[in-house]
Amino acid sequence: MTQQSEIRLTPLPSRSNKQLDPQFGRVVTGISASQVAQLDPSSAMAEHIRTLLFTHSLLLFKNKGEIEPASQLAITRVFDPTAPGFYGHESNHSKHTQSVLHRDLSTCPTVPQVQIIGHGFVKEHAGLTNVTLKHPHHKTFHRDPVSQADEDKGITRFYRWHIDAALYDLCAPIATTLHAVSVPKGDWQTVRYDDGSGQELPVPLGGTAFISGATAFDILPPHLKSLAVRTRIKYAPHPYVWMSSARARPDGLGLYHENKELPLTDLPPWTEDKIKILPMLWKNPATGRLHLQVHPSAILEVHVDPLPAGVEAFEKDHYPSGAVISDLNEAREFVRLMQRPAINPEYVYAHDWEDGDFIAFHNRGVLHSVVGAFSENQVRIFHQCNLAAAVDPVGPDQQDIEQYC
Ligand SMILES: [Fe+2]
């Protein structure tokens, strides 16, 4: 049996994470992903592994060979033993063909909490036969994709910055696990932000980009920190169906405001009590840090509490008396003002996948996006798993509000 003292953590390999939070991401040795799958989720070791995830946001196991979907589910359970047990998007992607997630996910028939994702034709894998996987390409979601000529030169985009969460009815998964079964090797590509910033980021082919929600909060100026601790986000019902006709900004961080969202009356049946209104900041259960966690494409309204009684409003303070921002364009601009600095190239970690890699990330502590484009003959097979949690994330406490307002 592995002892906690045998676990070793080393920094992530990276060519692009110049100003990453020093705590962000660790390679784990001394315990394998398969050994984590064997843990009793109520054991002290499982608790230790969870604390490592909450502290470092992303744990990488350099696994050799394939991990069975049932083991991946067991590992994912270690990170949330109280999860009821169903997939994080169950009520959304599988039933509604209009959902923007429908085309990206193929459910593993034997372990439905595991999704097979990737690219290319796969004759037989994990109970699926003759399936053609499609790596999400930004041209299916961005309003103004890069030209074919630029794509041929290796220019690409962040596809969609997001949290893995249904954001309607179900509670956001605590952790997502990603397992690279087969990774095609190819040249690095360049993410071009195309949002007026002139920014670019070199990324490995088909990499997964992550930013720390804790950093996203930490880098805000004081008056925006004061705003963030007072803010809650109301999400659209069935957000992935609602947004299906809308198109994204070129940096993948939110949608253009063109009134293309489906009218709420045209969505699959929904009820007000299942709509999610979540804090903008989610409190880390191990470190107490606040993570700026918003799915920018799914927001419907922004709700701001007033400054606490006795706190004097400064000139820079936004909404000192509180507000309900139901104008969608204004709500989006609000969230963008808060989130955009966090995707600056120096804060992005883009993982360069190798066959066998197994990553667990704190889905309530990071945002992530796929990047890149594969050619037709490149085959990529990944397994993804997350579980809807039992309870919603917790926001700032009274002490946080007093500290930042
Ligand atoms: Fe995701």
How would you portray this structure in words?
The chain contains 9 helices and 21 strands. Helices cover 17% and strands 24% of the residues. By secondary structure, it is an alpha+beta fold. The model has no long low-confidence stretch (mean pLDDT 93). Strands 1, 2, 3, 4, 5, 6, 8, 19 and 21 form a 9-stranded mixed β-sheet that branches. It has a 4-stranded antiparallel β-sheet with strand order 13-12-16-17. A 3-stranded mixed β-sheet has the order 7-9-10. A hairpin with a 6-residue loop joins strand 14 (281-283) and strand 15. The protein has 2 domains: 4-213 and 344-386, Double-stranded beta-helix (4-Layer Sandwich), CATH 3.60.130; 221-341 and 399-404, no CATH class. The protein starts with 7 loop residues before the first strand and ends with a helix. The longest helix has 13 residues, at 44-56. Fe (ii) ion is lined by residues 162, 164, 368.
